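step: validate -> pass
step: tokenize input -> pass
step: predict -> running
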Amino acid sequence: MRLDYIAPMNSTNAIAKGLPIWVALVACLGWMTLENHAVAQPAEFDFSPTNSSGTFYGQATVNGTPANANDWVAAFDMAGNCAGVAQIVLNDGLAYINLPIYGDDMTTAGVDEGITGAEEFTLHLWRAASGTVLNYPAMDAILTFSGWTNTNGAPMPGFDDPTEVYNFEEAAIPPSISGPESTCLNADPFALATAPAGGVLVGPGVDNGLFNPALAGEGVHTVDYIVDGVLASWTITVLPTLDATILTEGPFCEDDDAVVLEAVTAGGVWAGDGVFDGVFDPAFVSPGTVNVTHTLGQPQDACYDTDQQALTVYPSPFFPNLELIQPSAGVFHGVVPFGQTDVEYSWYNMLGELLAEGDTLYNVVEEGDFLFQATNTYGCTSTWTWAFVFPGVQDLKREVEWTWLSETHVEIDAAVEGLEIYNSLGQVL
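step: predict -> pass
step: emit ->
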């Protein structure tokens, strides 16, 4: 057996057929064809068996420790063809290599399936734990083997010692941990991204390898991932639970004052007809039902919630155009000539004292200002101020012209249909 040292791989180290080594290795990566192989190998290795082969014996270690049972070893010819693949066999704590290496099929001159006695080959190990391929003996250097022989599957001379150890050097992978920078208190427990496998996750909120925001509580927390005494840390902020549930329900009357919209969690964005900066103004919508939406955060945020509430706005009574009529001498009524259906009216003086209610008529006994209120079946009210002034002598003071024709006669000019004059005793003159 002959071992030759090849300098570290790069794009300029050419091997057979003028290909750089890294290109040669990649050329054999691909998907296995199960038609050709009874046992599945990792996708990184694929090969074509032929009718000539020799078996490579030995033991595989990684950094001095036996390889794992789910690791695979492969041989490559110098053209970059996978010439054989085998899974590591563990026995009594040792990792054995039992690798058949196939030769080139001489009946297919145009196809290079394996190696010949004149070719050298290299050894590589696929690490299931990390999904990486290790070069023998190290990632930055490869040793080549010579002396392949077709033994029809028997151990090849020079490669027939099962106690021979082939140690693959694997650079230590520093532990890493990552995840969201923030989450909500009510979020479900979740896994943080950690590497390499086999470490321990510790810190507030960690339960069975998952981070539980409810267990950690609100605030900023540091979680550590420890591998072989080396740790990596990740900081995550647990935010208060956001509840966008709208508390404002209504209903409203169309002439109600604007109201500040309320929700379980204050803030956020309010939207909808009649909504301005978190305030709902019924005067800006038509009577009926309007939808109001409350949103906290953004859909892509760690904490996000939204709610929608239907608010009902009822119509209010409209101004009825009050009139003052005199149905009989000395009697005056305030009248709502065009009453509204299902509306009740109330009369108040300016002190807010109730004078009458439930009718469109009110017996006005004195002049003055009155409050007139209408209430419909929705409970919506409208109030107006109305001034009543009796028609009569007092009203005519400024419109009557008195002309004394003599000491006993006076001419009165007034824009009225009838006129009576009384003396101070109340006698008709």
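step: describe -> The longest strand covers residues 53-62.
step: cleanup -> pass
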